[in-house]
Design a protein that fits this description.
The protein is mainly α and about 500 residues long. It folds into two domains: about 200 residues, no CATH class; about 230 residues, no CATH class. The protein is built from 15 helices and nine strands. The strands form four sheets. The protein has a three-stranded antiparallel β-sheet, with helices on one face. Strands 1-2 form a two-stranded antiparallel ribbon. Strand 1 and strand 2 form a beta hairpin.
Length: about 500
Amino acid sequence: MRKLTNTLLLLATLTGLCFLLEGCGPPKKTWGSFRREWEARGEKFDYRAMVPAPIPSEKNFAHTPLLKPLFDYEWNSELTDSKPADPEKHEQAEGLLVIDEDLPAIIRWPSGRRVELAAFQKIFRENGFWPHPEKPGKPAEDVLQALGIFADDMAELTRAARERPLCRFDLKYEAHLAAAMPHLLVLRNLTRCFTLRAVARLHAGNLEAAFADVEMGLFLAECLADEPLAISQLVRISNLEMILQAIWEGFAARKWTAGQLAALGKHLAGIDLIESCHLALRCERDMANQFIDQVKKDAGYEKAQALVDLAEHWPRSDPAGWLDRNQLRFNESYMKFNRRIIDTKTRTIKPGVAAEQLKYIEENKTKPDHIMSSLIVLSIGPLVRQFGSGQSVVDHALIACMLERHKLKKGKYPGKLAELEESLPNDPYSGKPYLYSVTPGTGPGDRYQLHGVGWNQEDDGGKVVLDNWGGTRESQGDLVWRYSPPPTLPETQKPEEQ
């Protein structure tokens, strides 16, 4: 009897030790029960619900002959590897409108500066590939001549956008982390060329052609609007910020007509990056769940090793239980933080939730049941901050359209935004109207200033913090829209990556 008792005690001790070492203590709930509980509340955990629906090829801009080869792939049976069906055509599509140079900055409006066309003129002259006059002329005219090498392709793309007003690239969503996304860099290159040409056309006095390029740039940026993946949305935001340079320069030069301002305002009013952020966070969660489910199905880490390093953390016993507990903790974390940081009803962001998540990650990153989260979960702060900043600048451009139309109609800018008598967006960081001030004077920047409080949720008086490259830090200072360099704040400490 004593021997049996000792044996039972030993087994209990070993079991407890196993739980401590592997983090496999019996949880109060499983991933399955957690999922059922939330699905009963209306939550969906299937990434396929967010995949854009197919559209007719003849209406699909992504199927225009210049772009369609990007996604003509041959996949292996396990959807872990692919190769272009026609490598030559694929390479041609990837090289569309590429400027192979270390280019000067194009996105300069956050610091109140115009594109330095003379710097582009210099690059195009120094590289024999680009057409240029024998002697330097006006920078805008020389840049337009250089970009003329792309004239046929840019004309075909513009025509395709009119004939194919919808866009859906053929991503292999079911390949999950292995899905190829060559269109992101291509769209970036296209947006850069149309932005640069729009700016050059503005400087050359060709307003109608410049506005046509602005419209094309906005169309290209919004080609990614329906893609739920976070990386797609980040490229979309970056492309929007790029084409906003041309829009901003038209404002700065007081060029846009009332009709053009109305068209711009209509387009900008339809951009909701806060909703897109919410969908991107959900999609990243559900794609990660699908990845974990596949690892469970494979009953091993070998196939997934090329995507996520699981070998170092694979448990010595009960891998299925370990994966289930990790999946539970991963989804609990999402509900605790990712789901709360965005409020789509009020279109607001709560930066404090990012700080909570960062602390939670740090406290749990070495615990066995949180290993999967530590490998596939990123701090939501830097990601959400880009959506918030992007929405703020889109809002600023929209309000600028209203202000300029008011000026054209009544001869002066309003003293307060409320005088616009239009529906105005609120600052996603404060939930309140953006801050506005009229700056009287005769200088190019003496007109008005818009600003939002930004990530720190403090009104810094319309001042920004510059980084080492002359850009503005989105984690500090305000988010400002004006037509001359904004006042700056000293960087007193390194920004927290939260």
